[in-house]
Structure formats: C-alpha cells, structure tokens
Amino acid sequence: MPGMSGLEVAARLSEAPVAPRIVFITAYDQYAIEAFEHSAFDYLLKPASEERLAKTVAKLKLALRAVPSAPAPFDANMLAMLRQLGATLNTGAAPGAPLQWIRAAQGGETRLIPVEEVIYFQSKDKYTSVFTADGECLIRTPLRELITQLDAAKFWQIHRGTVVAARHIGGTKTDLRGRLMVRLKERPEQLVVSRNYLDLFKQM
Predict the structure, then answer these.
(1) How far, in Å, CA of 156 to CA of 116, rounded?
(2) Residue 124 · residue 138 · CB < 8 Å
(3) What local confidence, expressed as pLDDT, does residue 204 receive?
(4) Number of helices and strands (H, E) in the chain?
(5) Alpha helix locations (H) across the chain?
(6) What is the pLDDT of residue 30?
(7) DSSP 5-28
(8) Which of 3, 6, 41, 78 could bridge 21 with an S-S bond, Cβ 3.0-4.6 Å?
(9) Among 99, 150, 144, 106, CA closest to 123
(10) For residue 120, what are the β-bridge partners?
(11) Could you give the CA distance from residue 180 to residue 117 in angstroms, rounded to a whole number?
(12) Mean pLDDT by 10-residue block, N- to C-terminus, for the chain (204 residues)?
C-alpha cells in the first residue's frame, strides 16, 4: 500500500473509538504475531482456500451480530461484503468456526501456534499449558473455555484437566494401578484417562 503498511494501518485503526474487524490476507507468515498484537480478527495465508475463507466470514458474521445496534463506521459496508462472500462461496459453514491459532507465551516470547500442531492441552493453576512436539507454552484461557472453541471431533477431553488431539494418540495401556493411559506419538509422557471418559477408548 502506498505510504503505509497494512500493519501500520491496523495499528491506527485499533485506537479508533469504534475499530473495524481487520482480517489480514498475506503470503508472509512472519507478521502474524504483530498483526494479532494490533487486534487483527484473523490472519490468512495465501493462497487461502475457500473453506478457510468461509470460516473467517462465518466468524465475522457472528462477531458483528454481537455488536450493539448503535451506528458504527464500516459495519454496513462490511455486512454487505460478507453477504456477498457468503452467497458466492455457498459452503454452508456454520457460525462459531473452531479455533485455528493459539497465541501462547514461551519464556520471554510470544508464539502463534496453529491448532493442528497442538498435541494436548492441560490445565495448570491459573493457566493452560499447550504442548506441541517441540515444547510447552502457556495461555491464560481456562481449559473449560478453550474446549468450547475446539473441534470436538479432533480434540478429546480425557480428564477434567486434559484435552488431547485425537490424531496424536498412538495407543493406550493399563498401568499397574488399573488406570487407562494414553500413549502419544510425538511426546514421551503418558496421559491418564479418567473414568468419565473411558467410553472414548472402548473401540481401541
């Protein structure tokens, strides 16, 4: 853009009394964290698929419905654009699309983690630990709230304080205390399955 980058525009708009919902569509993933620091609503990498774009449109529609009815800049134009996109895509994507990214703290850094890279989440005091193949990060979102934003077909709650990605489950075993344990494909630890969630593993 002439004279100003997209991130600079987002930074200025985020300070407005009524800020618009900003979606970045770019070929560069290295600017994602900075975009979310400027209150980006979503961040899409090119080439964005129709399915991914439809999920963003659905989330935007849901967010705009929650805005008070008082006049706000950009809302009318944005709604018109969303209706047009929705009609064009015609994918039938439901509102409240599952979470796609996790913004987490690791040491003194902030990481933007694609949800598909998460192996499991575990409740830890006031935080939730996010475990990936290469380490552990922390987020402030409580596990009970995070569960509502995850795809239930891909993430299974196996304990009151543990949610695991089904595709990262390598198998199960029973320990000496008679507890069912989940073995992970890419991490060495084993996770306890509480009695309330044993039915998930009857087929295994």
Answers:
(1) 13
(2) yes
(3) 60
(4) 5, 12
(5) 6-13, 32-37, 50-65, 75-89, 143-147
(6) 74
(7) -HHHHHHHHTTSSSPPP-EEEES-
(8) 41
(9) 144
(10) 131, 164
(11) 24
(12) 64 68 80 78 82 86 69 46 42 57 81 92 90 92 89 93 95 92 95 90 69
Q: List phi, psi (to 5°) of 168.
A: -95, 5
**pTM score > 0.90 for this model?**
no
Q: Provide CB contacts within 8 A for 142, sequence distance 6+.
A: 123, 128
User: What pLDDT does 203 receive?
Assistant: 62
Burial track 78-114 (b if 16+ CB lie within 10 A, e otherwise): beeebeebbeeeeeebeeebbebebbbeeeeeebbbe
pLDDT, residue 167, reads 94
Q: Report the C-alpha gap between 204 and 85 in whole angstroms.
A: 42
The two tokens of residue 153 are 């077909």
3-state secondary structure of 192: strand
Tokens of 158: 């196996």
Q: What is the pLDDT of residue 36?
A: 80
